[in-house]
Amino acid sequence: MKHGPIALIDEAMPVIVIATKGASYEKVVSNIQEVKARKGKIIAIVTEGDTVVKGLADHTIEIPETSDQLVPLLSVVPLQLFSYHVAVMRGCNVDQPRNLAKSVTVE
Predict the structure, then answer these.
(1) Which domains does the chain have, with CATH numbers?
(2) How far is CA 102 from the centre of its chain?
(3) Which residue from 26, 22, 85, 80 is spatially nearest to 56, judged by alpha carbons?
């Protein structure tokens, strides 16, 4: 956030944040506050019952509280669904993405 991406944030820039309870929670909250100071829109993946980030974010998606090892697995599901629905809204063919043949090796 500090040296590059922060310069891109304005009122038209949505920022997706994974702000689950854990070791870096306070730093993530600080970054959210910086984005809000620049009028960015926050979409946050939060731990169920989190009121701090919910008060800062424009939109929240709650996931159940779990061990630190399982948080990435749980938080990726709403991110995948979000990207799928954005692609559909943009009219992209989600069943045949562009340049797939270049990235998949066929024997």
Answers:
(1) 5-103 (3.40.50.10490)
(2) 27
(3) 26
